[in-house]
Amino acid sequence: MLNMSEYRQNCSEAYTKFVQLIELNTYYCEFSMSYEYNGSMIQIAHPVQSISVNKSTVVYADKTGMKNTRFASTGDARSFIKWLTAKS
Q: With a threshold of 0.70, does the pTM exceed it?
């Protein structure tokens, strides 16, 4: 039988390994992609958590935070959203 100190040490080591596995899994599940628009690149760090649209402006939250992108037309914004939701 383990004493309390050994028990805590074993739990701490197990927790550390568990966190490392979670971080490793997260690392492999997350990826970034680029969308080319009018000669510039829009970087998206998946996973995308939310998307909001108002006419030709798209605001989305990815792994790195909130981003605001304004397009020349609503059709361009719609194309971007279609691409973004297909990749998410």
A: no
Tell me the residue range of the domain where 8 lies: 1-30
pLDDT in tens, 6-50: 656 766 676 677 666 666 555 545 578 899 999 999 989 888 899
**What tokens were used for 71?**
């397009």
- 62 burial class (0-12, 13-18, 19+ CB within 10 angstroms)? buried
Contact 83, 69 (CB under 8 A): no
Q: Nearest-CA neighbor of 32 among 12, 15, 46, 51?
A: 46
Shared-domain flag, residues 88 and 67:
yes
